[in-house]
Design brief:
single chain; mainly alpha; 4 helices; about 75% helix; transmembrane helix
């Protein structure tokens, strides 16, 4: 597998783990807590594999940016958290940054 696939797996693991943090109720609920721990273990393992071929700054920017966007969307639907205009603008800017890095930056290549 290549770095992009590892990074995608790391992002999915992080989004799942972060989405279950609230349900874990401070790690007092066993099942959601197990999902959080396993999710973050998967995340960091695959992120470490991704960083073998992706520069750390670029990988982290993509990982955190996509994670923020996806977790915000999940929180909206799963927990009814509202996103006001400044939040939507900020998320749009994050998305724009991730797109700029992926489409135009030469920093993502070694």
């Amino acid at each position: 597998m290549n770095g992009a696939v590892y990074l995608a797996i790391a992002i999915v693991g992080e989004v799942i783990a972060t989405s279950f943090l609230r349900a874990s109720a401070g790690f007092t609920q066993l099942a959601p807590s197990i999902v959080v721990v396993i999710g973050y273990c998967i995340t960091f393992y695959f992120f470490s594999l991704a960083l073998q071929t992706i520069p750390v700054g670029i990988g982290y920017a993509i990982w955190s940016g996509v994670g923020i966007i996806l977790v915000s969307i999940i929180a909206f639907f799963a927990y009814g958290q509202s996103l006001d205009l400044p939040a939507l603008i900020g998320i749009g800017l994050i998305l724009a940054g991730v797109l700029v890095i992926n489409l135009f930056s030469h920093s993502s290549t070694h």
